[in-house]
Amino acid sequence: MFPVLAFLIGVIAGLRAMVAPAALSWAVWFGWLQVSGSWLAFLGWGFMPWLLTLLALAELVADQLPATPSRKVPLQFGTRLVSGAVCGAALMMTLDLNTTVLSPGEMASEGLVAGLLGAVAGTLGGAEMRAWLASRFRRDSPAALLEDAAAVLGAVGIVSAMA
């Protein structure tokens, strides 16, 4: 189940790069995900959920602006890949060690790869879906808002599954 969730949080990062880490940061802050003592402990720092939420909100607004570059340009694409990989690793690190033969490092690596692959799928698939929806609506705004809703609701669903 965890590699699937790691892939799915990567898909969310591919749709909106900051929504996935914001959701995971809140999950860590509420104690639903345990990453303390790891390189991902920063997700639970007191101000981090607020900062990442602010960045996610800024991304949702910026996405509506006509001057916003395509998610497929190197900087945008790379950001989504990093976000998906980090979020996938964070989810896999929460796996109960008694249910697997993998070491914590192997679990994090598996999550990193699953999140990375999910981010590729979310970035490319999200762009295609949004273009298709925009052509149906004859404008981009409704398609963008649906994509925003899918990213936020998807992130909440994934984090809720971890609670």
TrEMBL record:
Residues that span the membrane, as ranges: 37-61, 73-92, 112-133
Keywords: Membrane, Transmembrane, Transmembrane helix
Record protein name field: DUF4126 domain-containing protein
Species whose genome carries this gene: Pseudoroseomonas ludipueritiae
Organismal lineage: Bacteria, Pseudomonadati, Pseudomonadota, Alphaproteobacteria, Acetobacterales
